[in-house]
Amino acid sequence: MEFFLRLLQLIFKILYMIAYPLWCFFLPRKGPSTIPPIRDRLLTLSVGEVLELYKQRKLKSTKLVKAYFDRVIEVNSHIHAVVEDRFNKALEEAARADELIARTPDAELPELFNRLKLLGVPFTVKESCGLKDMPFRVGSRQRANIVCRANGETVNNLVAAGGIPILVSITPEYCFSMETNPATQKRCVNPHDSRRTAGGSSGGEGALNGAGASLFGIGSDIGGSIRYPSLFCGVFGHKPTGGITSIEGHFPNCKDKDCLEYLQMGPITRFGRDLSLLMEVMAGKNAKLLDLSTPVETKDIRVFYAFGFSGLNGLLHRSPTKDIKVSIMLAVKFLKTRVLHTQKISMSAFKNSLEMSIGGLVMLKDFPYLINSSSPHKIREHLAEMSKAVLTQSEYSNEALYFDALRRVNGCMRTEAMLRYKAEVEVLKSTFARMLGDYGVLLFPTFPVPALHTDSSLLALWNVDYAMIFNIIGFPATHIPMGRDGDGLPVGFQVVAAPYRDKLCFQIARELEAAFGGWVIPTPHEIQPL
Q1: DSSP string computed for 323-339
Q2: Which of 168, 274, 411, 414 could bridge to 358 as Cys pair (CB 3.0-4.6 Å)?
Q3: HEC sequence for 415-457
Q4: Where is the Amidase domain (predicted)?
Q5: Dist. CA 341–CA 175, nearest whole Å
């Protein structure tokens, strides 16, 4: 462990324990969600159900796309999740999909949908993932006029499969935050409580999916950026095995081989049963490595679980709330008679999880900084800009500045120490992979607390390795929603598997969705009977 880094973690933990309750005390009590209820039954259908209706010629893409347009318009004034829509173009693409389905004989429809697995299916795109002819500012005033020239490769895989992008969603500046408060527009807020963040950096996708305004979305994750919004907004989110999805066309990006593993794109969705299909399409040519067509039997899976880190590392982290621990125990109790084996484990092998996580990110070559400067006094410039930010005079966002500053000071670690932790990562990979094997999964908190109040993420930042350590070691992880806590906020946990065993995560997600309901709905539906 690194003394100074851990001292900072301890200080922030104490501040968090003292300041955050006081902060909450002076805020008004949470009222009911302001998100309008869903009234259109089409918005409650999974991708699988939509495709089945298309094949039966009982639903048209134009009708579904229009239903999602209406829902986006209805909720966006509450959550502020949209950067820009492409409604008119999407309707044209939906009409072409309907025409293609209509002129295809019944006997040839299976082949058509086998070739175009998402034909006529609307989806939303995190702005940083790159959608052609759409804004590409990624929360930055310096990028305010940048338009994406081509689809990012993973986005293009969805489009090539017949998917119809309907909008780009908001991110924090450069994706450098656990909450989505960009420098370019209003902050994105949580559909369950407008005083709280939707998470980051895929906060727009989390909020849209949580509010029922997206059939599914594509997000990106280098340190929990898919899984935090999924936890905070009560939906499913998958961070794939390292290197499975292409990050070509994403911003920020770099060519460092480690970045190709740490930074991954994946689905955010209300429906756990859709994850396998969505991942198959997003992975493109790498889908064969996941062997998703070969089914997994729940009875063959071994379930390991832990409520947090062990020993001194656990003491220095914020402990998970009671409700998050209970969600893990409920899952274990349910799975106990369905899986091969359940076992609580120690996370002692992860004793340097924070050092490995922060060190891995700091050591990335050519990963862009928020403030690009050739000055020998870069740190001094950052401090000056952070001072301006306190007075709301900076052109940059607070959270991105602090994150950038942490990288500028090497994560408070010496280079030789970071190299030592990098070597330790390789040992952890092999040790943890052996423990899980081909049929083992770990149930582990995605984050120790549910949705944070806005402007409080800096206090909680020192728990980033709950999620980020699995980016650093390249293991797949799926967040699974498991209901609400006493304050009405979504809770849940992540399920982690060995590399290329993503389908184990999906199988557990399907089982728990069927048992516990999955998506946490902000406002009860008011669907009219047929």
Answers
A1: HHHHHHHHHHHHHTTTS
A2: 411
A3: HHHHHHHHHHHHHHHHHHHHHHCCCEEEEECCCCCCCCECCCH
A4: 64-505
A5: 39
Mean pLDDT of the chain: 94
Question: What's the CATH code of the domain at 442?
Answer: 3.90.1300.10
Residue 527 located in a structural domain: no
The answer as to whether 43 is a domain residue is yes
Cβ pair 386, 380 in contact under 8 A: no
169 is catalytic: no
Contact 437, 302 (CB under 8 A): yes
Task: Give the distance, in angstroms, between the CA of residue 103 and the centroid of all CA atoms in the same chain.
Answer: 38
Q: What is the pLDDT of residues 357-385, one digit of tens each?
A: 999 999 998 899 888 766 666 677 777 88
pLDDT score of 529: 65
Its pTM surpasses 0.85: yes
394: confidence class by pLDDT, cuts 50, 70, 90: confident
Per the structure, the count of domains in the chain is: 1
Pairing of strands 236-239, 302-305: unpaired
Tell me the three state secondary structure of residue 281: helix
Determine the Cα–Cα distance for residues 432 and 475; give it in Å rounded to an integer.
10
Q: Tally Cβ neighbours within 10 Å of residue 56.
A: 10
CA distance linking residue 236 with residue 518, whole number of Å = 8
Bridge partners, residue 164, by sequence: 122
Q: Is residue 61 part of a domain?
A: yes
What is residue 20's predicted lDDT score, i.e. its pLDDT? 79
* Sequence-ordered list of residues with C-beta below 8 angstroms from that of 249, at least 6 positions apart, any chain: 129, 130, 148, 150, 151, 152, 153, 154, 155, 156
CB atoms within 10 A of CB 11: 11
Active site residue 387: no
Set 140, 225, 327, 457: catalytic member: 225
Cβ-based neighbours of 332, under 8 Å, separated by 6 or more: 303, 305, 342, 443
**What pLDDT score was predicted for residue 377?**
65
Indicate if 126 belongs to the active site.
yes
Catalytic one of 140, 201, 353, 457: 201
pLDDT band at 326 (very low <50, low <70, confident <90, very high): very high
**For residue 205, what are the domain limits?**
36-516
pLDDT tens-digit series, residues 96-143: 999 999 999 999 999 999 999 999 999 999 999 999 999 999 999 999
pLDDT 10s digits, 403-425: 888 888 899 999 999 999 999 99
What's the CA gap between 39 and 504, in Å, rounded?
Answer: 34
Phi-psi region of 32 (alpha: psi -120 to 50; beta: other; left: phi over 0): beta
On whether residue 12 sits in a domain, the answer given is no
Alpha-carbon distance of 140 to 74, in angstroms, equals 26
Q: Which of 13, 60, 126, 503 is catalytic?
A: 126
